[in-house]
């Protein structure tokens, strides 16, 4: 069992020199908030085509990663408090090595299930004012992960995150990341991902297309914001 140290929400605001709409700036709440199928009440995303929705209702990012990032990019104001990565849930004691696709947790009175890892995008570059931040997050494996909401309810800072069920404990978020971004042509792993229950169709599609094409996707536009 782990405790959620912070619950965070944010509104859409201008990000970077061009004022890109983004909801990445999340701030801790001090009260109970409602956990809905689409996310936490009062939380918002700037681009619903790639952020938010039922499969990415809640973003969880481990606080222990912050110390690693301070070592890698140096002192940064964003790394002095939770919310730097646009997370909704902040904890100590659980990382990508510990949670697996399909893990189901009781969070306050809500019931949530791990759906997928986070795929960092170029808005992290603007957020940190570090040109390769999104790429570095993807390469590091310190991406955080998303939940779908199975039962709506209430959550408050300090709520326990209680593991209820594990359907595929061997498929941790770290293993999924490693198969997609490190050992990219491990055909056995890709075949398993393509059939992995509780993983969103989009992610299973990545694996199926890679198996068919024997080619790795070009992630550059997602990481840099530049279209070729």
TrEMBL record:
<dbReference type="InterPro" id="IPR005302">
    <property type="entry name" value="MoCF_Sase_C"/>
</dbReference>
<dbReference type="InterPro" id="IPR052353">
    <property type="entry name" value="Benzoxazolinone_Detox_Enz"/>
</dbReference>
<protein>
    <submittedName>
        <fullName>MOSC domain-containing protein</fullName>
    </submittedName>
</protein>
<dbReference type="Pfam" id="PF03475">
    <property type="entry name" value="YiiM_3-alpha"/>
</dbReference>
<dbReference type="InterPro" id="IPR011037">
    <property type="entry name" value="Pyrv_Knase-like_insert_dom_sf"/>
</dbReference>
<dbReference type="InterPro" id="IPR005163">
    <property type="entry name" value="Tri_helical_YiiM-like"/>
</dbReference>
<dbReference type="Pfam" id="PF03473">
    <property type="entry name" value="MOSC"/>
</dbReference>
<feature type="domain" description="MOSC">
    <location>
        <begin position="27"/>
        <end position="164"/>
    </location>
</feature>
